[in-house]
Structure formats: C-alpha cells, structure tokens
Request: fold
Amino acid sequence: MKRKLSLFKNNAKRQKQVVKRLASMPDIDTEDVVNRMREKDLQITCDYFDKIKKKKKEAQVYNLLSGLLRWFECDEDDVQDEVIFFKTVYFLDEILVKANTLTENKIEQYCVVSFIIQWKLERIQVNPGFDEAADFLESYRQRKCSNLKHSLLMTELEVLRLMHYNLYTITPFDFIKTFMCTQGCVYSDECEYLFGKKANDTLKKLMKSSAYNLRRFKAETIAYVIIYLIRGKGFGPSREYYTDTHDVNIEAVLEDIKVN
Reply:
C-alpha cells in the first residue's frame, strides 16, 4: 500500500529558511566544511567502476529507484525527495564496491536498503518500514518472495557492518548546498532555493544521460560542473573559490561525461 506523506508540503519555504539561517551564522568556514566533506568524497576507480557499472545495468538500478520513489509517493519537484535519490545512488556505489556478492537479487536488496537508510538520515520523523519495502519489491519483481522482509532486515545489518556504520555519503548537491549557505555560488539578490532547484534538476539530467560516467569523478568536481552549466558555462560568484581550490579542467570533464 502506498503511503501518503504530507510532512514536507511547505518544503520550499522551510529549506529557504534553513539556508538563510545557516548563511547568517558568523562562524561558518566554507573551507573547513568542504574539507570535512572531501574526506568522504568517493571517486570510483576504473577497475571498480567497470565492475559495478555492468552489475548496476543488469539489475536496472535506476528503474528500481524510480519505482521506489513512485511507490512511496515522492514528489519529483521536491528537492529533498530528489536528494534522497542521489544519496541512495552514491551510497549504493560504496556498498557495491565493498560487497562480495553481486547477484541481481542481492543488488536489488542493497538498493532498497540503501534507499531506506538514506531516507532515515534525511527524514528522521517519517520513514518507510520493511513491510512496505518488501511489498514494493514483490510488486517490482512481479512474484511472491518468501521471507523477503527478513531478508531485507538481514541485508540492512550486512550493510551496516560493511560500511562500518559510516552511513553518510557525499553527493555533488552537498557541495552545492554548502556553497549556497555561504554565498559561494549564488548572487546576493538570488533566491537560494531556486538555485538549489536548478542544481537539482541539472544533476538529475546528468544522472539520466551520463550516470555511469559521473561516478568516475569526485562529487566536488561534478558540483562545479553543475554550477558551470547553470551559469551558462561560467562560475558566477564561485569563480574565485573554484580557481583557488580546484585544479580540474571542466571542459575536459564535460567531454568525458559526454555533455555538450
């Protein structure tokens, strides 16, 4: 049964207030925050990339995640809902790199469990249960599966051990949000929420067209690619920060991930 969620109907207003509050804090040091994120910023090396690329394609991971979003009635226009999607994708990659068993059924379970874990981290008050997750997976597979709820619960325990209980993962959107909060990429008179929506939509398009190539780059690099595309192939207010801290040829990255 689908769950109707209304907890974040005023998400746009709420996020804008949060961003403004963070931006007004006097002790935020962008460099400190970014450096902490860089410690968790994962780049999939070529050997692992080829391995998980093929396995994810066989398991149709993105179709599965899209189905999860629809099943739990997530809103495609809600930035927070999409952030859960990106968090899940990045977290799943970290799991697949470390996991020993990568059968199609196992990857599906890793995917569902990753989605639930990232949902819990983003939305502490409300999260889907394993009963509902099992119902979804049976519907998705179009067949009855015995002990599926128990299997998902055991998979969650496996994931927790596999990741050493380090469940936070970094996506390009995390870097962009940090720059937004400290005026690192928005103009002074620009609505932070709308810029965040543009960034989210751009990341979504990149995931659809170049998902298998994106993970060969660190999230910070893709964050700058997104800012660059939003600004019409420029960096806007983030130009100085990018030049000082990030020595990557954006045009070369765009060519590599096949973005015109």
In short: The mean pLDDT is 80. The radius of gyration is 19 Å. Residues 172-256 form one domain. DSSP finds 13 helices and no strands in the chain.
